[in-house]
Amino acid sequence: MSGQQNRYLKYTNAEEQRSNVRSLFNNIAPTYDLLNTMLSFGIDKRWRKKAVSELGIDQHSTILDLATGTGELAREALRKYHCTIVGIDPARDMLKRTDFKLSTLPGKFSPVEAFGEALPLASKKFSHAMISYGIRNVSDRPKVFSEIARILKPGGKFAILEFSDPKNKLFAKIYRFYFHTLLANIGGLVSGDRDAYTYLPRTVAAFVTPEELAAECEKAGFQIQLIKPMMFGITTLIILQKK
Hints:
By secondary structure, this protein is an alpha/beta fold. It has 9 helices and 7 strands; from the N terminus they run αααβαβαββαβαααββ. Helix 3 packs across helix 4 and helix 7 (169-191) packs antiparallel against helix 8 (194-205). The protein starts with 13 loop residues before the first helix and ends with a strand.
């Protein structure tokens, strides 16, 4: 399937791109959690636990969970630390599921429908920010990083968890076949939206390296504390601190 045939890749400006991303995640919201577990064999839960543990969260923390999706990263933080989280996501159907799923957990979760480029949040009010598998879908990363720096207190921590390209050549071949071929077929079959699961691996293949991503954050006023590849490098955790 070519890029021209995929409806989520048809955009001419940032506004259309944001609209496509919102539509994509609204469409796959009902099967998103199931597919995440199936397609990662449940390992994604370990990666999220690692991200939360590296942030230095406690019960007094106030956290922005950007691109919260169905709230898996937020759930880990709430379950373990009973903190306060604002979950931002443009996909309303995702947020509805997240709010329901997290409503019985300790702590406080507040869902907000918005894009990362214009956070409806006060400046210097958050101790932490985090995003898992969503930064590659934003239309203007420098603006998002600037917004995150704005809402964080001085010294605030920021975690990025994102897919990356494995360094091992043999493993990379196996991974790419699975990610680009099997994922589209399985994800499309279960969700009924093959375009979505063709779009997702393409965004990974076209994305910057973890080191380049961290350098972008430095330009927005962050210091790099950790760049940690996991599972042969198919995912990378980046921990940053606001100067």
